[in-house]
Amino acid sequence: MVKSFRTTDRVFDVIIVAVLTLLSLSTLLPLVHIVAESFSDKAAVAGGLVTFYPRHFTLVAYRAVMSDHAFFRAFLVSVERVLLGGGLQFAFTILTAYALSRPTSEFRSRNAYMWILVFTMIFSGGMIPFYLTIRDLHLLDTMAALVLPTAVPVFNVVVLMNFFKSLPKELDEAALIDGAGPWYRMVSLYVPLSLPSIATVTLFSVVGHWNAFFDGMLLMNSPDKYPLQTYLNQIIVQASQPQSHLTPDQIKQLSQLSDRTVNSAKILVSLVPILIVYPFLQRYFVTGMTLGSVKE
Amino acid sequence: MPKTSWRKPVLLAMPAMLLALAACSSGGSSDSNSASPSASPSAAESASASASASASPAKDPWGPLPEKTTVNIFKVEPDGGPDFLALPEGETITNNRYIKAIDEKFNLDVKFPIDVKGGAAGEEKGNLMIASNDITDVMIVGYNQYLQMIDNGMLADLTQSYNDYASPQMKEVLQTDGGKALELATVDGKLYGIPTMGTVHNSDPLIWLRKDWLDKLGLQPPKTVDDLVAILKAFKDQDPDGDGKADTIGLPGVDKFAKTSADGAPAFYGYDAIFSAFKAYTGTWVKGSDGTVQYGSIQPQTKDALAKLNEMYQAGVIPKDFAIMKNEQASEKVASNTAGAFFGPWWAGWDPLTSAIKNDPKADWRAYSLLDTDGKSRSLQETPIGSIAVVKKGFKYPEAMIKMVNYGYQVQLDDPAVAGGDPYQGLTMPNWQTLPVPLALWRADSVILDHTGVVAASKGEELPKVGAATLQNYKTQGGYWSKGLDWLRQNPDSYGEPLSRVYGVDPIVENDTEPVYSEYYGVTHTMEQKMTNLDKLEIDSFIKIITGEKPLDYFDEFVSQWKKLGGDQITKEVNEALEK
Amino acid sequence: MRNKLAIHYHVMLIPAIVILGLFSIYPLFGLMIAFEDFKPGRGIWHSPFVGWENFQYVFMLPDIKQIFYNTVSIAIMKIVFTQLFAIVFALLLNEVKNLLFKKTVQTIVYLPHFISWVLLGGIIINVLSLDGIVNEALQAIGIPPIFFLGSNHWFPGVMVGTHVWQEFGFSAIVYLAALTGINPSLYEAAAIDGAGRFKRLLHISLPGITATIILLLTLDLQNVLNAGFEQILNLYNPMVYQSGDIIDTYVYRAGLREFQYELGTAVGLLKSAVSFVLIAISYFLASKFANYRIF
Asked: How high is the ipTM of this complex?
């Protein structure tokens, strides 16, 4: 490593650190604001007095979250969804990506399959036909309705497929000479060599399932089965509902509900799993995200 | 029976008798699905306490069905946690004593195959069920959905069942709005559902002001818009909170600042009171001078109102960014006592004023009405029809739904005795929303009635005749009120309700506010296709004029645009519909 | 031999074909709605057929040109500025020697990519309102407050800005990968020749990723009709419909909220068709000029 002691380089360093620090802060501060709200007194938040540190520090909001059974039930549904859905996506992404990573010389129909996948990524029948399909398959109100339709994530397949393609051909040929079949090659050669990419697409899977909210509302027939984001969407969206046609009872109810501190706390608690999983897998991104390969 | 692509409009001008007439004329011809034998309708009125179910002309509002019947209901759970439902341990919204009582009384096995949490989700899921023609036996739907379902032939005709099986109490309460909701629910002479009513005066926009600021600045309460503008300028510029900083504003604002055809009048922070003060009723069908019905938003009065709003905007008493503010942000201004004035309904006492009083216990909030150019107080009312309980076409016993609503009505009236015993004897009654068919059948005149009740209770005078729980609430709130404002401000958790019920309704009573209704609440063919864009054009143009981005005369351009882009066609259709 | 292998690959693709066939291809029958006067009571199969009438109506809608313009202009600005920020960020981060600092910065700036717009929307409205933190900061340096989310002048810019804010870090990943691929001996040689850090960045790093830049811009061609549905749905309001309404928000409103299924489906179908053409174009452009295969 060549070290430079020239002053222009030092200035350059300072500028870089300053710019990067600013960029990081711009990302971080809004989150800090939410944290501050969640630890503040309700009236202070309603009065718009909270910025980056809590006013009248209190744990009331978190106690409310802890005693909310619906929140935890939804949390568990989401965990189940992530495990099942993520697992399915994991298996099917590897299978599909591997088959599609084969050259046309070895697998002639490969391009036809590929275009079918791309086609499905772009065309959609719309919400109503999708709902009818799920109903006719008798999947409404089941976990399967949340995990099966997305079990083959085309974007993830493309990322992993391109990583597979970028591995040196020689390995493949050596294995072929050893008489190893395609399944064996996939499991014991390609998968171990592709861990960064697999970690990356797995994170996409987990986050995708964790953040999905619309299908929960669409396909579940009882609130006990709502995933967390569907539940959160419901409590956050309802705050902006039009307020005409209310009965006196509903008025009382609304005034009890408009509690931003509790909502902030729920948002933060729902971010926790991502905050735990994400930094751990984040280091694989640079090597794992292969959007395509330039043929040299 | 699917109809043509035209949606049959709903008539407001319909004579009150029509329902009864329709019942007679359709009695013989339709209703092939109904199991009930035809009998003289008058037999139903006297039915209430008939003991033996087996002696069956079977027109008893409280009698059981002839056989055990399963009824599938689409449940929309209210927003809010389990505490709100006030159910005893072990009972839930889908499994409680009301549901068992319904079974015992009516031979009805209630099931909830589809259950959604929250109003917004409920609406979308409902739309989806309608779009996929996959509805449950009984549903509660919105008015648009209702018309859509009738148009698609999905609903059972309930005209006869209503006449035969609705309890006298339900029939009576459905007249407290002058029969408006029933008229709107009647399409082509047939009634397809039991509607809830708009509560009269519930959203009348009042101007809430800090009386202590008025006094400090030596100002009188407002009567006219100009009085109000003077007050707002003073509130903004003369440091009413006395902290030496220019940190107060005039009015807060909100993105939905005027009624459009799609949205109701904004309950909070809107400027519809300014429009009304010029006798302009936006988003509403009004009688023109030539006797035809015209759209309120394009009338010259609207231009006058916009001129005034522009003047207020220039004077800085309307926030620069009013058109992007959400309710919550406007509430913040009031809660933090940055704003000492805002437009809100009678019930603003609960929220935001409870927060405001917590942040500043010195505040003395009062409500006033603005008078219009005739010197009268007039307010546009919310749509007189709310949600509607309907029955799927082909369901064997459509009267099952009516019986459940009979029962639900008695529960809400705090009079379970009529329904044959209170299943929650000795326990707190749970929220009415735990009923299997939770239709909110309040008296449409409850705003004034409750006001009278609480005021009477606070003075120890004779109370109106109402159910036990309501009576108890009059006493509680009246008791709080009699302790005086100072006590209430020291006890902010008890402050909201009595303040709303007394000060919030006072101006409506004092000024004898006249309710204003639209001449037409239906949706015509062209409206269905073009109204969204016209609403957009309207709000866009209003904002441009108010903010001064365009001169006032841009209004005339907006009117001609509006007419050209489908407005004329829609107006024609509305008038045609009303002539029929 | 080869045929035998191919059978295995067909087998591997069975799950994908079954899943996509059931949940993506079969529901395409719903596209018939675009050619019907759809009556839910009669269902998709039995509603009256009206041919191209719905499409003719779409093109007559006064707003449709504006909606297309909004979609394309917002999407293109997002592509250009996100890539620009991502490139600068990647180049700067590549110069950082302190590993801890580098990792920390990376961890933070990628994060917003993983937060849903339901939550981000709330945060952004809060920060950008007239009395929000940004305007307070502007006022402190003497700039009058700006009406970000309520002016047709600013709104598209804010959509682009917040999108860049959310995505620049994550988009930089591909460039960081490309930078690690540059031969270190090039830098050493330049240093010996007396080139400063900035010069090396300009003359070695930047040319080293030029191919990647061109490639990514080509790939982004397929996104010019995707202006960000969830983002705009969460941030727009009637005041900025004129500049903020995009194809996807229109389709959503028409289809699930206003009972205009036919129009929603027709516009959605048009969008899909154009997107498909664009993807094909970018595929062939990349393949022809960069010798690159996307998929």
From this structure: 0.82
